[in-house]
């Protein structure tokens, strides 16, 4: 029998029992693929990350899986939580890296920026520049969200598939009340995902009374077993890029996205568009740790 250390962190928050829950398992070597699946399903969170430090490569390595046996990539809460955990536990994961700290998510190198604030690490993860892939007709997506075509009319903006690391569907919603009323019709969303070639559905509105928040968002991704995610870094980056391309926000300014309100796990995702990519930032707190038996 093999014993592994595990941790649960709340991500994109500085308070316990808020943010997006992430289980993180420390491994000494790669597991069998079915062990990744079994452990992720056992925890039951939207994602579980498996981490180890490679002495040979001088890099902290992360692999992440959903409870539906899907491996995820990109700079999202699965990566942010793993890096914050390492910093909170004072693991030396950046030795020999010089002035450009980075980690690996599966085969992708992700650049990081790290500051400390109020005793917590705040980690920035750099995504690629946003690419608008294609437009999806409102008539096709509205029924999948339990909304009308008119409900999706926000400033005349298109419903676009936007990609940094992962291609997600950006769905403008007229206001916060309609955003709250949206319902994920899983079979219809899966059909739309397959037809148009996107992964998750990121509903958002900029029409809200709180000027401190750029946008409020919800994320549905039934194709990989996520009913509703409290914080989605891989979608927040494309949203920031999308809004910058529309001329709604400027480059080199820090903005905040609120997500998770309607699953009682409010999360704050910081976004900043720069010339050569998009920075996604936030913190995490540890809520539990223990032993896992293989």
Describe the structure.
The active site is at residue 47. The protein is 19% helix and 39% strand. By secondary structure, the protein is an alpha+beta fold. It has an 18-stranded mixed beta sheet that branches. The N and C termini lie close together (6 Å). The chain has two domains: 3-125 and 282-293, Diaminopimelate Epimerase, Chain A, domain 1, CATH 3.10.310.10; 131-275, Roll (Diaminopimelate Epimerase, Chain A, domain 1).
Summed up:
The chain has 294 residues and is α+β, with helices and mostly antiparallel strands. The protein is 19% helix and 39% strand.
What's the layout of helices and strands?
Layout: E1 3-11, E2 20-26, H1 33-43, E3 48-54, E4 59-65, E5 71-72, H2 77-88, E6 102-105, E7 108-117, E8 120-127, E9 131-135, H3 138-141, E10 160-163, E11 167-172, H4 176-181, H5 186-196, E12 201-205, E13 215-221, E14 226-229, H6 233-245, E15 255-259, E16 267-274, E17 277-282, E18 284-293
Please name the defining characteristics of this protein.
294 residues; alpha+beta; Diaminopimelate Epimerase, Chain A, domain 1; 6 helices; globular
């Amino acid at each position: 029998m093999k014993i592994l250390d595990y941790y649960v962190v709340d991500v994109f928050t500085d308070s316990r029992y808020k943010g997006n829950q992430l289980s993180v398992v420390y491994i000494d070597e790669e597991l069998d693929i079915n062990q990744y699946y079994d452990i992720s399903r056992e925890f039951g969170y939207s994602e579980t990350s498996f981490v180890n430090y490679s002495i040979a490569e001088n890099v902290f390595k992360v692999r992440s899986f959903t409870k539906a046996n899907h491996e995820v990539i990109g700079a999202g809460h699965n990566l942010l939580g793993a890096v914050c955990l390492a910093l909170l536990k004072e693991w030396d994961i950046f030795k020999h890296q010089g002035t450009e700290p980075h980690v690996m998510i599966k085969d992708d190198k992700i650049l990081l920026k790290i500051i400390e604030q109020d005793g917590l690490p705040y980690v920035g993860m750099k995504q690629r520049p946003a690419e608008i892939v294609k437009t999806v007709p409102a008539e096709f997506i509205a029924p999948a969200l339990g909304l009308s075509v008119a409900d999706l009319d926000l400033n005349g903006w298109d419903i676009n598939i936007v990609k940094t690391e992962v291609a997600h569907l950006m769905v403008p919603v007229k206001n916060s009340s309609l955003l709250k009323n949206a319902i994920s019709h899983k079979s219809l969303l899966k059909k739309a995902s397959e037809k148009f070639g996107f992964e998750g559905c990121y509903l958002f509105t900029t029409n809200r009374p709180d000027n401190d928040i750029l946008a409020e968002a919800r994320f549905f991704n039934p194709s990989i077993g996520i009913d509703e995610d409290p914080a989605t870094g891989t979608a927040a980056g494309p949203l920031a890029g999308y809004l910058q391309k529309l001329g709604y926000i400027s480059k080199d300014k820090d903005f905040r996205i609120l997500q998770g309100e309607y699953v009682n796990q409010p999360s704050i995702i910081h976004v900043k568009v720069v010339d050569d990519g998009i920075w996604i930032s936030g913190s995490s707190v540890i809520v539990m740790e223990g032993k896992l038996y293989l």
